[in-house]
UniProtKB/TrEMBL annotation:
Protein name: Chromate resistance protein ChrB domain-containing protein
Protein's organism: Emticicia soli
InterPro entries, A to Z: ChrB_C, Homeodomain-like_sf, HTH_AraC, HTH_AraC-typ_CS, Tscrpt_reg_AraC-type_HTH
Keywords carried by this UniProt record: DNA-binding, Transcription, Transcription regulation
SMART domains: HTH_ARAC
Pfam families linked to this entry: ChrB_C, HTH_18
Stored SUPFAM superfamilies: Homeodomain-like
Domain HTH araC/xylS-type as annotated: residue spans: 175-276
Listed Gene3D superfamilies: Homeodomain-like (1.10.10.60)
Length: 287
């Protein structure tokens, strides 16, 4: 069997080949090509496309392609079902499903960064998923600290200290500083759809087309502006910031650009909106 998917694999597109080789066809071949060429190449090679929209082997609801293969081929191995939770959590950024998913996501991203050849990356992926399968099969219940009383003691002391520190009230300035730092980061970050598409290993036109479905029916630029204006409204409630400073902190190129964007989204000028906020606070205090 031949299988084909998008280039630059990270999680599902490495996990699925491992699963197919192990349970479906040990001699399966895999091809990685640019997104726009997948269906054409699939026809030429008589290959099965996977992990792309509008094909059989893809995501369904909150399930990823790995889940579909498990279901399609009725794989009952309990270790594979443990892996399925981890792969799904990592592939869909829902780490609450399986705590191991964050580690898999980090390792997968690091591998993709270090190895530019997709087929070399796939060979390393087989090693990772073989190891993860062995852990799920034989070591799933074993804890790292269970054979080290000294490390376990340190671990317990550490968590006790953390718990005691959590009881202390965090100063207001800490939260404000975090906001300011994040604003500075946002301001320095260039929202370049092409770069983001490369990072996500998605075709830019596909990302642009699908974006509004999941982000409040807004296109990429509109959504970014909306989030910046929401941050600006938060900052307006802190009197120490002038409107010029708020425009700067929320990443607008100048005051007029900020004013135009703010009025477009809220229907009011920033100064009028802030005055209403002040009046609302005064009215609340007087009641």
């Amino acid at each position: 069997m031949k299988w084909i998917t998008r280039e630059r694999p990270k999680i599902d597109r490495l996990a699925c080949p491992w699963l197919i080789r192990k349970y479906v066809d040990s001699n399966a071949q895999f091809f990685y090509v640019p997104f726009d060429e997948i269906l054409k190449k699939a026809a030429e090679l008589n290959a099965i496309p996977f992990d792309i929209p509008d094909v059989e082997f893809t995501h369904y609801g909150d399930q990823c392609t790995f889940d579909y293969i498990v279901k399609k081929y009725q794989i009952t191995d309990p270790a594979v079902h443990i892996l399925a939770d981890i792969v799904r959590a990592a592939d869909t950024d829902r780490y609450s499903i399986a705590k191991e998913a964050a580690g898999l996501g980090a390792i997968s991203a690091g591998l993709a960064y270090n190895i530019r050849d997709d087929y070399q990356l796939l060979e390393q992926g087989y090693i990772i998923y073989d190891a993860l399968y062995s852990w799920a099969k034989h070591l799933y219940q074993q804890k790292h600290l269970q054979n080290s009383p000294f490390e376990k003691l340190l671990h317990e002391v550490y968590h006790k200290i953390l718990k005691e520190n959590d009881k202390k009230k965090t100063p207001v300035w800490v939260k404000e500083l975090k906001n300011i730092i994040q604003d500075q980061i946002d301001m320095q970050f260039t929202f370049d759809l092409k770069k983001i598409s490369d990072e996500l290993t998605l075709n830019p036109s596909y990302l642009s087309r699908e974006f509004s479905k999941y982000f409040d029916d807004l296109n990429f630029g509109e959504y970014v502006r909306k989030k910046r204006i929401e941050k600006a409204i938060e900052l307006m409630q802190q009197p120490e910031y002038s409107l010029t400073e708020i425009a700067y902190l929320t990443g607008f190129s100048d005051q007029s650009h900020f004013t135009r964007s703010f009025k477009h989204i809220t229907g009011e000028n920033p100064s009028a909106f802030r005055n209403k906020l002040k009046k609302s606070k005064v009215d609340t205090k007087s009641k």
